[in-house]
Design brief:
The complex is a heterodimer. Chain A is of the alpha/beta class. Chain A has one domain (7-269): 3-Layer(aba) Sandwich (Rossmann fold). Chain A has helices spanning 51-59, 81-90, 108-118, 126-139, 144-147, 157-171, 187-204, 215-221, 239-244, 249-256; strands spanning 7-18, 25-36, 40-45, 66-71, 74-75, 91-94, 175-179, 207-212, 224-229, 232-238. In chain A, the strands form two sheets. Chain A has a six-stranded mixed β-sheet with strand order 6-7-8-3-9-10, with helices on both faces. Chain A has a four-stranded antiparallel β-sheet with strand order 2-1-4-5, covered by helices on one side. Chain B is α/β, with parallel strands linked by helices. Chain B has a domain at 249-337. Chain B has helices spanning 49-56, 83-89, 112-122, 129-142, 159-170, 189-204, 218-224, 242-247, 252-258, 325-337; strands at 4-16, 22-34, 38-42, 64-73, 76-77, 95-98, 177-181, 210-214, 227-232, 235-241, 311-314, 317-319. In chain B, strand 7, helix 6 (189-204) and strand 8 form a beta-alpha-beta unit. The N and C termini of chain B lie far apart (45 Å). The chains are: A alpha/beta, B alpha/beta. The interface between A and B is large, with 41 and 40 residues.
């Protein structure tokens, strides 16, 4: 890592403990990291490794038990609702399940219109708003004319997830969390979503934090990869280093367990 | 020539919607699985993979209806059999089916052993509980599962273990064909590997004679099955051995699928993934011509006119396209050079 890169999001000693006494579960255990501006970082871990809990803490949806979060070098302050709203303008997320990410009573127009309003475009003339919405839709290869007056559930899963990216395109946050955005989508539309996310990074220079259990996917999209096991980062570094030359036994096991195309899959190791 | 365990000839099944429309989700599908072989079925969601699995069992319940074709399991034609008869004498003993979320089938209030007792008794094998336990224990031993699992409740088991328990139960009555519909899609990579290993063991130990494996994950299919069949909009578009289908696909759709594979291997970041534009056709009124024509890069005027038949490409391979093997190869080479 070069020194010129500006830190975008960092944390020190971040911990989340659920329950207490005998039922105490340490979901995230003293995690330190520093993500840079314009980077795509993947957090890879098996189910139950605490990656979603970490994301929720960073998004400000749950409080942390211990540790500090720094946004662009400054300590994060979301003590009041107003500050929280301000924070969410710079940090956004795409979740796993596109079907439950929308308000079913809102039409697609109003979903997108909300984003424009949130960016301070409430007073813009209507034609300008439509123009912005159409631009966002064409960015993700959807046709805005076909979407007006439709409800989100009338779209397919892949289209919904792309609409989610269109929202992000309008909101232009500094940091985007993508929590398994392709796990509910089949292999063919997966490539489209990933390419659109990478395009988004290119155009807006946002930091994308990609949370996944699929190590192949992480390797494809990200600049650096963090491997998480039982709430701890066991290995992190550039994608090529971590995936092609893993040092930790856990990472090696994870990579070995994925079926490959050109290499043989060794079934004897489980 | 080894024994043919399952043979399906031109099977067509349809869903009838509540408005009375017919949706042909499986359209003239023929396949053959030999003893000791496994067949993989690939395709995107909604292409009819799971419907095909349901149809293969010959056990239809509304809205799924049988239209035409034949199903022959180990020489026995089950096409004309009434559903009750199929249920009693075919399911479980001749053909077993593991649905997508099989692990949710376990009753949370009962121990695993009583689930197994139920399975055995439902098939009219009235043996004592002690014998059932012995039989289950032996089976679990062969498949590498701990015998303590039998005395546990489903909530005490992890997702991977539950899935393996259900698979073990499904091979208890030594079916000739096992249909596994996405048996590992809800599991993490290590559990997935264990499930696959167990299916292999079941095959090697003669618990099952052949297997049909359904998934949309191509790297998995390449490593698990001998043959791969690619489905699109209810039809087979390509058939061949796993190696051929993955490394040298003929049909443009299969080619597109192979272009979207993501594996953590060297060189993945250098290639650009190719996505197939558009969406599959609505099967309520499928296009008259080639069903893939709308999304195909090499579409020609003739494509949309008449329906395209499955063409034999030699060596057990077949594909559904009007272009010849040579023309397709040239088209792919031209595309790659651009």
């Amino acid at each position: 890592m070069t020194d010129e890169k500006k830190s975008c999001l960092s944390a020190s000693g971040l911990t989340k403990v659920f329950g207490f006494g005998r039922q105490k579960t340490v979901a995230v255990d003293h995690v330190d990291f520093n993500f840079y501006e314009g980077e795509i970082v993947s957090i890879v871990g098996e189910s139950g490794s605490g990656k979603t809990t970490l994301a929720k803490m960073l998004l400000g949806l749950i409080s942390s038990t211990e540790g500090e979060i720094y946004v662009q070098g400054k300590k994060r302050d979301i003590s009041t609702q107003k500050k929280k709203r301000e924070y969410w303008k710079s940090i956004q997320a795409i979740f796993q399940d596109p079907y439950s990410s929308y308000n079913i009573f809102n039409k697609i127009d109003s979903v997108l219109l909300d984003c424009i309003h949130m960016r301070g475009g409430r007073k813009l003339p209507h034609t300008k708003k439509v123009e912005l919405m159409a631009e966002a839709c064409s960015f993700v290869n959807l046709k805005f004319e076909e979407l007006t007056n439709k409800y989100p559930f009338e779209l397919s899963g892949g289209q919904m997830q792309r609409l989610m990216i269109a929202r992000i395109f309008l909101l232009k946050p500094k940091i985007l969390f993508a929590d398994e955005p392709t796990s509910m989508i089949d292999a063919c539309s997966r490539a489209t979503i990933l390419d659109e996310l990478m395009q988004l990074r290119k155009e807006t220079g946002m930091t994308i934090i990609f949370i996944t259990h699929d190590i192949g996917l992480a390797y494809y999209v990200s600049d650096s990869v963090c491997i998480m096991e039982h709430g701890k980062f066991v290995e992190s570094g550039s994608a090529d280093d971590v995936i092609l030359h893993p040092k930790e036994a856990y990472t090696q096991r994870l990579i070995n367990d994925v079926p490959k195309i050109h290499e043989a899959w060794d079934l004897s190791t489980v | 020539m080894s024994n043919v365990m399952l043979e399906v000839k031109e099977l067509t099944t349809k869903y009838v919607t509540r408005f009375g429309e017919d949706v042909y989700a499986v359209d003239h599908v023929s396949l053959k699985v030999e003893e000791g072989k496994s067949l993989g079925i690939a395709g995107e969601s909604g292409c009819g993979k799971s419907t095909l699995a349901l149809s293969l069992m010959g056990y239809y319940f509304p809205p799924l209806h049988y239209t035409s074709g034949e199903i022959i399991i180990a020489g026995q034609n089950i096409t004309a059999m009434p559903p009750d008869e199929v249920r009693r004498s075919i399911l479980g003993t001749e053909i077993a089916y593991i649905p997508q979320s099989a692990m949710n089938a376990l009753n949370p209030t009962e121990k695993i052993i009583s689930f197994i007792e139920d399975v055995i008794q439902a098939h009219g094998l009235y043996i004592t509980k002690k014998d059932i336990y012995e039989r289950a224990r032996k089976l679990f031993e062969i498949l590498g599962l701990p015998a303590e699992v039998l005395q546990k409740y489903p909530v005490e088991l992890s997702g991977g273990m539950k899935q393996r328990t259900v698979i073990a139960t499904s091979v208890l009555l030594l079916p000739k064909v096992l249909i596994a519909d996405e048996p590992s899609s809800a599991l993490d990579v290590t559990s997935q590997k264990m499930v696959i290993k167990m299916l292999r063991q079941a095959m090697e130990n003669g618990l099952i004679d052949s297997m049909i494996f359904i998934t949309h994950e191509l790297p998995l299919l390449k490593n698990v099955t001998d043959d791969i069949m690619v489905m699109y909009a209810g039809q087979i578009v390509e058939k061949g051995t796993a190696e051929e289908t993955v490394f040298d696909p003929l049909h443009p759709y299969a080619k597109g699928l192979m272009g979207s594979i993501i594996v953590p291997e060297k060189g993945l970041r250098d290639v650009k993934l190719t996505a197939i534009p558009g969406v599959p056709p609505n099967l309520k009124n499928p296009p008259a011509g080639c069903r893939f024509a709308e999304r195909c890069k090499f579409v020609q005027p003739e494509c949309t006119a008449n329906s395209v038949a499955l063409r034999d490409a030699g060596g057990g391979r077949a594909y559904r396209c009007i272009l010849s093997k040579r023309e397709l190869k040239e088209a792919y080479a031209r595309e790659a050079s651009q």
